[in-house]
Amino acid sequence: MEFENTLRFAKNLDHKDQLGKYRELFHFPQVNGKDVIYFTGNSLGLQPKNSQTYVDEIMDDWRQLAVEGHFYANKPWWDYHERLAVPLAKIVGAHEKEVSVMSTLTANLHFLMVSFYRPTKKRFKILCEEKAFPSDQYMIKSQLRFHGIDEKEALVEVKKRAGEHFWRTEDIIAKIEEVGEELALVLIGGVNYYNGQVFDIESITKTGKKVGAYVGWDLAHAAGNVALQLHDWNVDFAAWCSYKYMNSGPGNASGIFVHEQYLDKKDIPRFEGWWGTKKESRFLMKPEFEPMATADAWQVSNAPVLSLAPYLASLKLFEEVGMPALIEKRDILTSYLEFILNEVDKKVESSFEIITPGDRGCQLSVFLHGEGRSLFDYLMKNGVIVDWREPNVIRLAPAPFYCSFEDMFRFGEILETGILSK
Ligand SMILES: *Cc1c(COP(=O)(O)O)cnc(C)c1O
To answer: Does the predicted TM-score (pTM) go above 0.90?
Structure first.
């Protein structure tokens, strides 16, 4: 599509946008009396207006029914979490039974590593991407220490090539094959938080499995952003948070995926709790753990229903729209943003550089030459919410659910004024 850097063109795209009406279903913060241009849906998604109703429902049931709410609430609490599995399975490309909702992301990766990082004398290495999200680095290193393994020997980080801003699939694959029989686990962020790169989950998983390793993915920046087929790609396990592209609210519950081949097994190592035991006999309070035949076997505690309520509210919107429509809009919206950035860059003489590669979801990461922090402050003061990463990167994620083409155009105007006024 030929883009134009005009308000009329942007408005026309909004007019034709099938998802345009969803913008009104979200709450926008205000700056100078106007809705902000929100680029940080990759960090904390906006609040869907329906989430209040879902939370109020739990509060009302709790007030009126107290403990009876577990079984007699409008949506009974004891299996409330199961309502999330159907829409989540569609988002990540899984069978319903392969998905569960519990706890938080980093905690879940720890739990899943109990099952899928089982080092032996010979096979003990973990491969991840260089400069993974810090929480993932801490998680992996602490797991190694927990097993009494030296990280210097066991942690294999795949690097980018000198002068390049992205990882090459062939380099990751070559590294996996090189480590080979010593490789116990591949664990990578499916979409990199810093440069927005989408990894080739299918090929990397295939290679990891071929050398006999387990392969897991942190999908924090992937879930609700990119197309996923976890079951068909034969991924062993995955986890994601729900507060980024999935708009469930700050620090909210995480989702997990465990491939069908590991379900309904008693002998798999796992840290267990009562919500993972068969629900038919759960309240008989028997001493023996009988795992649920689904990914719920990994559930440890009874579900935090008050947090699941806004998550469920948001998933209703995902059910309505579906990932294919979101992805279609995402691609046009992000391309339009890229076009606008390039237009501004021409006028201000190469002030910045987009470091996100072609394999991308909705995020564009922009490396600022020279401007730096003061430009970030200018944008924030003028109602553009972006985020800042050291040394000199702003990340822009126009979430297709609620960002408009007009937002992209107006952002271009503000950015240009911001740079030229310096
Ligand atoms: C956001 C993010 C996290 C956050 O983990 P929490 O446990 O939810 O705080 C972890 N890993 C990655 C890759 C992330 O992007």
So the answer is: yes
Same domain? 181 vs 290? yes
pLDDT of residue 57: 98
Model confidence over 47-82: pLDDT tens digits? 999 999 999 999 999 999 999 999 999 999 999 999
Beta bridge partners of 237: 216, 258
What are 184-237's pLDDT values in tens digits?
999 999 999 999 999 999 999 999 999 999 999 999 999 999 999 999 999 999
Q: Which two tokens stand for residue 300?
A: 């440890």
Residue 410: which domain range? 7-49+322-420
Residues 88 and 144 reside in one and the same domain: yes
Ligand 1 centroid to 64 CA: how many Å?
Answer: 36
Separation of CA 42 and ligand 1 centre (Å): 11
CA of 259 to the centre of ligand 1 (A): 21
**Position 2 in a domain:** no
**Residue 400, preceding peptide bond in cis (omega within 30° of 0):** no
Q: Whose CA is nearest to atom 8 of ligand 1?
A: 105
Instruction: Tell me which residue has tokens 């000199």.
Output: 392
Q: pLDDT tens across 370-379, in order?
A: 767 888 899 9
- Concatenated DSSP letters of 316-357: HHHHHH-HHHHHHHHHHHHHHHHHHHHHHHHHTTS-EEE---
Distance between CA 88 and CA 77 in Å, rounded?
18
**Which residue's C-alpha comes closest to atom 15 of ligand 1?**
220
CA of 150 to the centre of ligand 1 (A): 24
Q: Which of 43, 44, 193 to mutate to test the pocket of ligand 1 (most atoms within 8 A of CB)?
A: 193
CA angle 421, 387, 188 (to 5 degrees): 140
Nearest atom, ligand 1, residue 43 CA: 1
- Residue where one domain finishes, among candidates 289, 321, 353: 321
Q: Which among 276, 304, 321 is the end of a domain? A: 321
Q: Separation of 128 CA from ligand 1 center, angstroms?
A: 15
Indicate whether 65 and 35 sit together in one domain. no
Q: Do residue 182 and residue 64 come from a single domain?
A: yes
